[in-house]
Design goal:
This protein is mostly helical. It contains five helices and no strands.
């Protein structure tokens, strides 16, 4: 959990640098943030802006909390696979919405 909180500012900064490489680089790192940015949820823009910023900083601490809670029941390899699957589902949802 502490590691996830510690890497969040670096991940956010990394996304800003990665935007220079093209549109899909940052979307792979923070899919949940970009999923909320589009008009896919049909919410007010002011509410979406605040929600996006909150999700951007909460994504990795959420993964850390999920790792701590899942590790109580599962091995680290299973826990890591579940968190990566959750991240990949967000990326696939973002790709599906962008294709439509």
């Amino acid at each position: 959990m502490v590691v996830a909180i510690a890497i969040t500012p670096f991940a956010v900064r990394f996304v800003y640098v990665l935007t220079l490489s093209g549109p899909w680089g940052p979307r792979f790192i923070m899919p949940w943030t970009f999923l909320l940015q589009g008009h896919s949820l049909h919410m007010q823009e002011t509410l979406t802006d605040h929600l996006v910023e909150g999700v951007m900083y909460a994504q990795f601490p959420f993964y850390g909390l999920a790792a701590v809670l899942l590790h109580r029941q599962y091995r680290w390899s299973t826990t890591l696979a579940m968190i990566l699957a959750l991240h990949f589902v967000g990326f696939l949802a973002l790709a599906a919405i962008d294709q439509s």
